[in-house]
Amino acid sequence: MDWDKLRVFHAVAEAGSFTHAGEVLNLSQSAVSRQVSSLEDSLAVKLFHRHARGLKLTEQGEDLFHTAHNVYGKLAMAEARIIDSKESPKGPLTITTTVALGSIWLTPRIKEFVSLYPDIEVSLALADTELDLSMREADAAIRLMPPTQPDLIQRHLMTMNYRVYAAPEYLKKRGQPKTSADLEDHSIIVYGEDAAPPVGNPNWLLEEGAEPDRPRQPVLRVNSIYGIYRAVQSGLGIAALPEYMSREGRNLIEILPEVRGPSLDVYFVYPEELKNAKRIVVLRDFLVRKMTGGIA
């Protein structure tokens, strides 16, 4: 099978059109179309259904695309290992984690990491959905739950707890609750119904100290912990937040210190193929050093 034609086919399948694939490959639309047609002729099958709204992979095209995608992922892994065979850590390193942990905790510390390892080209991919590490959508991840894929290595970094916080502005206006029952008279911010945080009962604060027949109603529902964090900072209300947010936010005050919410375990995760990569090793050691004894 011609690798050049396969590369063009893979780009078309990812882009969904000859035009967009041509832009990625720096080829004309007609050149891309010819390469795909030539590949189809050599295989004696149609790889795409062509219609007015674009391209759709045939069953045979789907099979070839998945195979090609796996091959290119393994080639990328091999390239990373070759780069890391040299003495100093260098080369591209994409780190993924959640929007909140990445924005609030990780991003301010990247300056130190880059200063220590100037030849590593760092990219942060912040997303509340998990990127596929085995397909090199990222090289390493900081996750709030252990990985389920068997080909990923995990290193437990720390355990952090949810605690109850409010902004000084809110407490000055509404007063500070002394017991969890006092939350009845306060504005509470919680997760939205479509949120899926890695804890069993994300909106436990609505039930803390509440009477069973009088469920509390929140002042606001937000589908991300970063949104909740920003709403609390603004003085809108009280919320349960991971404890690292108060250390980074500076303007959050812990209330009801005797109340403890669920815990989150933080993991450093990377593909087995990169276990000896110097970029991964120095990142792991950096994160362990920064998280020893808690996120600080």
Total number of distinct structural domains:
3
CATH architecture of the largest domain: 3-Layer(aba) Sandwich
- Beta content: 15-25%
**What distance separates the N and C termini?**
53 Å
Low-confidence stretches: none
H/E element string? HHHEEHEHEEEHEEHEHEEH
Helix amount: 25-40%
Q: What oligomerization state is this entry in?
A: single chain
- Number of separate strands: 11
Shape: elongated
Q: What structural category characterises the helix and strand content?
A: alpha/beta
How confident overall, as mean pLDDT?
86
The CATH homologous superfamily of the largest domain is termed: Periplasmic binding protein-like II
Largest sheet, in brief, is: 7 strands, mixed
Query: What is the CA-based Rg, rounded?
Result: 25 Å
Number of helices: 9
Overview of this protein structure:
The protein is α/β, with parallel strands linked by helices. It folds into three domains: 3-83, Winged helix-like DNA-binding domain superfamily/Winged helix DNA-binding domain (Arc Repressor Mutant, subunit A, Orthogonal Bundle), CATH 1.10.10; 91-157 and 265-291, 3-Layer(aba) Sandwich (D-Maltodextrin-Binding Protein, domain 2); 160-263, 3-Layer(aba) Sandwich (D-Maltodextrin-Binding Protein, domain 2). 39% of the residues lie in helices and 21% in strands. A hairpin with a 2-residue loop joins β1 and β2 (54-57). It is elongated and about 75 Å long. The N and C termini lie far apart (53 Å).
